[in-house]
Structure formats: structure tokens, C-alpha cells
Design a protein that fits this description.
Blueprint: H1 2-21, E1 27-28, E2 31-33, E3 37-39, E4 45-46, H2 49-60, H3 70-78
Antiparallel strand pairs: 1-4, 2-3
Helix pairs in contact: 1-2
Length: about 100
């Protein structure tokens, strides 16, 4: 069931990113979070067909496990000075503090 949830989130994320946001932005990154936060890339990436394909491939490899460490994900996203917006998608309520 958790894998089904992550697949639904991934598909919605792809559609939202491609149709609504990416066409109006210049750079992006993705961060997966569960017990820890993991970025797709170590910096914001230029938007291109190649980077979008790479991001989608990374999203397809995600799986649900552990807890919901929203704080770590937000901290990671805000650590890049180029960050202008954060879109948070989660399957649950935060259950970790710092």
C-alpha cells in the first residue's frame, strides 16, 4: 500500500511540476524525506529536458519507509540560498523533531 501511495504522489508531482511550475521557473531540485532527507541533486539544477527526465527517473525509484521528518526536508531546501519556493508533498503528519 505504501508503494501505491508513493506512486500516486510521484505521478501527481510529475504532472504538477511539468504543467504548472517548471515552465515558469529556471531552476529546481527535489528532496525526498522519511527518517532522513535526501536531495536529488546537491544544488538547484537548470531546467532542461535532460534534467526533467533525470528527476522523473529519481522519483520513480523512491520508496516509503521510516518516519516523516518534514523538518529535515525543509531545512535542507532552505539551505540553498537560491531557493525561492518550496512545494511540500507528504503522506503523513510530521513525527520527528529536529
Amino acid at each position: 500500500m505504501r508503494q501505491t501511495t508513493i506512486l500516486r504522489i510521484a505521478i501527481k508531482l510529475k504532472m504538477y511540476i511539468l504543467q504548472e511550475q517548471i515552465r515558469h521557473k529556471k531552476k529546481f531540485n527535489l528532496i525526498s524525506f522519511n527518517s532522513k532527507a535526501t536531495a536529488w541533486q546537491n544544488r538547484l539544477m537548470d531546467i532542461s529536458e535532460l534534467s526533467l527526465k533525470g528527476a522523473w527517473k529519481w522519483i520513480q525509484g523512491l520508496s516509503c519507509w521510516g518516519s516523516t521528518n518534514t523538518y529535515a526536508a525543509l531545512q535542507h531546501a532552505l539551505s540553498d540560498p537560491g531557493t525561492q519556493a518550496i512545494y511540500l508533498l507528504t503522506d503523513g503528519r510530521p513525527d520527528q523533531v529536529r
